[in-house]
Design a protein that fits this description.
The structure is a homodimer of 367-residue chains.
Chain A (H helix, E strand, L loop, with lengths): L5 E2 L38 H15 L2 H4 L5 E5 L2 E10 L5 E2 L2 E2 H14 L4 E12 L4 H18 L2 E10 L7 E10 L16 E4 L5 H10 L2 E2 L12 H10 L5 E3 L5 H13 L2 E5 L7 H10 L13 E4 L1 H12 L8 E7 L6 E4 L5 E3 L13
Parallel strand pairs in A: 6-7, 12-15
Antiparallel strand pairs in A: 2-3, 3-8, 4-5, 6-8, 9-13, 9-14, 11-13, 12-14, 15-16
Helix pairs in contact in A: 3-4, 6-9
Protein name (chains A, B): Hydrogenase expression/formation protein HypE
Pfam families (chains A, B): AIRS (PF00586), AIRS_C (PF02769)
Family (chains A, B): Belongs to the HypE family.
Chain lengths: 367, 367
């Protein structure tokens, strides 16, 4: 017989288990003195980058992961596939122009598209909070299903966990996705070259301002709808012009500024923007002026940045403008040999400024 | 110019966005009058099944999803792959014998193995709580990396989100995984046949009791260590005997009872267990007796159930016992033509009882 059972009080839920130290850990992350996680670590900017560089990359030690693309491109059965994941913790769950459900589908579909891949399969994993209305969960699921149909992707596997009331926010969703990379396509964050033309597929800053308008109780005169949409069709139209797209990126958290800085560093090129050419809708510009934000740092959920060889740029731009998801596409800058790893912008007055990536994020939890 | 900006108070964070109804929704889930999510919906038992059946399956309408296997088996580039996802919300993050990090790797590796697939690639997505020690996150990541190395799988893509203090529990992790299904293997929850022998790969109920021992402040005389481990190697050893394994399942949430009931229903067979043959360690049996639990309903994280044609059963069992992850493997029952869709057990006194799946779960958040 085993020893008779005894009850022992252990204080709190986090009783000491088998907790190891983090070996090799020597100092807090450079950007913060505090050795704890702060909201900025989830903002997609410089602090997020630090966490990945100092904590996750050393622990996982993988060459594909270290490329830090929107998705990993892998060999399977003699062909290439793209694989990507994203968790969604947006507040509120429903916002003008979308909800967490379509965001979760489009976000991963778009991460795959940024490798040139057409999404085929998605997983859907839910962390639900006790006490959430089942009808709300159902509405999210139904919108996810509709978004998957629109994007031409199948939701083939899933999972549901429930956490106690107060430990979640109604619904968190993770999606992971698999897509096929067409032959001859080699789109990577480190392929930008001096001379490449930088194209944005449409208006910037719309998703972030749409979320802010409902969450912070602001009204901007005109209702701003999220730009959440799948971009696989737009990318296919671009690849029909040329397979030699160098870089694609969807500028979500941290906005266009973060994406461009990451590409400038990965590729070792300078990026020079013409600020007058940025397609910033008036309502976004006004909201940003009012709130002290830079539209370049505000999140988008249905836009892409493309780095295209100069010879193909006009034809690619025309193909984008002919597609419903790219009708407002514009050339916003070019890659240069000057200031490698940095992004600069010529202002309306002819001066130049450095476009840095945000440290944390002005508006947490926009996706 | 747009209208001048105005500030408007909207009450609470959940300002009315673009919230739709859940179309086609007519009634609360049959097992509950309350129209809200309860902990039992995440327990892996009957209530989890209801949520999937009434909310997710109709919304996503996918044939692979509807099979409700541990992973989806899909065609890509002319070959077959398995794809699976799981989120992990275990409390506490570190427990005797493991932590949320190795659980997140082994859980998805094992879901893939239940299709006969060897895991190749994992995604890792973190939802971190503001205020969590970075060293804790690092320790989790380091253990994940070590578990991935042990399982022979690469972590190739990832994501990090941060939620405000009080909205999470330190660390939630989602992993999704991709594996290759060998030719000639066709393992599905609906392939059990009368005459099949039911084998368990080792001691049952260990993970659930290990979590309970630290969380509920119980001591059971002997320390109970979680059985979290990767099962790809064990499955490969079994497939080396015969490719004609009918069903594999890792009995996690809801335990052996839930897995067997799901298989009985999917396959339309009866399952008859011999209770005396169940490998329940004494410390688990004592803890269950003390707590009023059925060891068949307690979670495992490093065990599998196999349904094997009678002619191959002895040889498969021998191969399992020769593998370090299957040294305590045992035949626990068989499939019968009687009582299709139900599981029965012959007790030590020769009587028979129905083994039902739990409604919710006795111990939430064990994975």
């Amino acid at each position: 017989m085993a020893e008779p059972l005894t009850l022992q009080d252990i204080r709190g839920a986090e009783a000491p288990g088998d907790e190891p130290s983090f070996e090799g850990w020597t100092c807090p992350l450079p950007l913060r003195d505090s050795p704890t996680i702060v909201m900025g670590h989830g903002g997609g900017g410089a602090m997020s980058g630090e966490l990945v560089e100092h904590v996750f990359l050393p622990s996982f030690a993988d060459a594909s992961l270290a490329q830090l693309g929107d998705s990993a491109v892998l060999e399977l059965h003699g062909g290439r596939m793209a694989f990507s994941t994203d968790s969604f913790v947006v507040r509120p769950l429903f916002f003008p122009g979308g909800c967490i459900g379509d965001l979760a589908v489009n976000g991963t579909v778009n991460d795959l598209a940024m490798s040139g891949a057409q999404a085929l399969f998605l997983s859907a994993a839910f962390i639900l909070e006790e006490g959430t209305d089942v009808t709300r969960v159902g509405a999210v699921a139904q919108r996810m299903g509709a978004a998957a149909t629109q994007a031409g992707v199948r939701i083939v596997t899933g999972d549901t966990k429930v956490v106690e009331s107060g430990h979640g926010d109604g619904v968190y969703i993770n999606t992971a996705g698999i897509g096929v990379v067409p032959e001859g396509v080699d789109i990577r964050p480190d392929r930008a070259e001096p001379g490449d033309v930088v194209i944005i597929s449409g208006h910037i800053g719309v998703h972030g301002i749409a979320i802010m308008s409902v969450r912070e109780g602001l009204e901007f005169g005109t209702e701003v709808l999220s730009d959440s949409q799948p971009l696989g069709g737009l990318v296919a139209a671009m690849l029909a012009v040329t397979r030699d797209l160098h870089v694609l990126r969807d500028p979500t958290r941290g906005g266009v500024a973060t994406s461009l800085n990451e590409i400038a560093r990965s590729s070792g090129v300078g990026i020079s923007l013409d600020e007058r050419s940025l397609p910033v809708p008036e309502v976004v510009a006004n909201a940003c002026a009012f709130l002290g934000l830079d539209p370049l740092q505000v999140a988008n959920e249905g836009k892409l940045l493309a780095f295209v060889p100069r010879e193909q740029a006009d034809e690619v731009l025309a193909a984008m403008r002919a597609h419903p998801s790219g009708s407002d596409a514009a050339i916003i800058g070019e890659c240069v040999e000057d200031h490698p790893g940095m992004v600069s912008a010529r202002t309306g007055f002819g001066a130049a400024r450095v476009v840095d990536l945000p440290i944390g994020e002005q508006l947490p939890r926009i996706c």
